[in-house]
Amino acid sequence: MNCRAVWNQVIQRAADVVLPPVCLVCGEEMCPSHDGLMACPLCRRAMSESRLTACYRCASFYEPELHHASGCPRCQGEEFAFSGATALGIYENELRDCVLGSKQASHQALALLLGKLLGERRRSILRSWQPDLVVPIPLHWWRRVRHGYNNAEVIGEVVSREAGAAFEARLLQRTRSTRPQFPLSAAERRRNLQNAFRVRNEFEVGGSRVLLVDDILTTGTTCHEAARALHSCGAREIRVAVVARASDTSHG
Ligand SMILES: [Zn+2]
Ligand SMILES: [Zn+2]
Asked: Among 39, 71, 82, 155, which has the minimal tally of Cβ within 10 Å of its Cβ?
């Protein structure tokens, strides 16, 4: 450990004595965490699904006895341009509040927390995919200006470190502003997002395994369209990691 790291730890310990850390999710005072994650053990558990089985294709969670080798009841018959997906948990309760909060630039600490939890809890599957590149789902530039930042970028950068892959924040570009997805039918969602993504540097993508990162996965249309753009530039394999898997289609 270098001098600066030791000094930072000393300052952190001193700050913890004066101002005990609080959980970013529930606001309760907590013991200083050895890993620097600002979430209490209860909230970490509440946000990370560990009881249910996850579908390897669409990351939906369901009872273990409903396991299907060809995907779960929600995604059988769906065509995805990505070949696997994983999620930290279900889009509800604490995880939903945290994801919504992380969309605001003033709450980037929440995005860091979510990225760290996703990377840690799903580390083995992420590493087994051996991605070369981690690419966040981009916002259209105008929406990015309005939000002040893109939470998927912060989440993706943290996940890239856990997955041991290069982070490419600007590889994908959203070429046009699209309507919100949540009021649309499945067919309308696909039409709404068709050709909405462009790869900036094709040479970087050829032959590589890409991990797409986003905050929520609902129908999979956004990641499907992003994966299609990457495949058209020669990407070999594309997988998806999201913080939250929505259990119905009424979310964005
Ligand atoms: Zn908490
Ligand atoms: Zn599925």
From this structure: 71
Give the closest ligand to the alpha carbon of residue 46.
1
Would you tell me which CATH number, out of the four given (3.30.9.10, 3.40.50.2300, 3.90.460.10, 3.40.50.2020), belongs to the domain 51-245?
3.40.50.2020
Q: What is the three-state SS of 216-247?
A: EECCCHHHHHHHHHHHHCCCCEEEEEEEEECC
- Which numbered ligand comes closest to the C-alpha of 71? 2
Cα(110) to ligand 1 centroid in Å equals 12
- 194 in the Ramachandran plot: left (φ > 0), alpha (ψ -120 to 50) or beta? beta
Domain range annotation of the chain? 1-47, 51-245
Hey, CA dihedral for 35, 47, 138, 234, is it positive or negative? positive
Under 8 Å between Cβ of 229 and 135: no
CA 90 to chain centre: 12
- Average pLDDT rounded to a whole number, residues 225-248: 95
Report CA(52)–ligand 2 centroid distance (Å). 13
Total-model pTM: 0.88
Q: Are 222 and 136 in contact (CB under 8 A)?
A: no
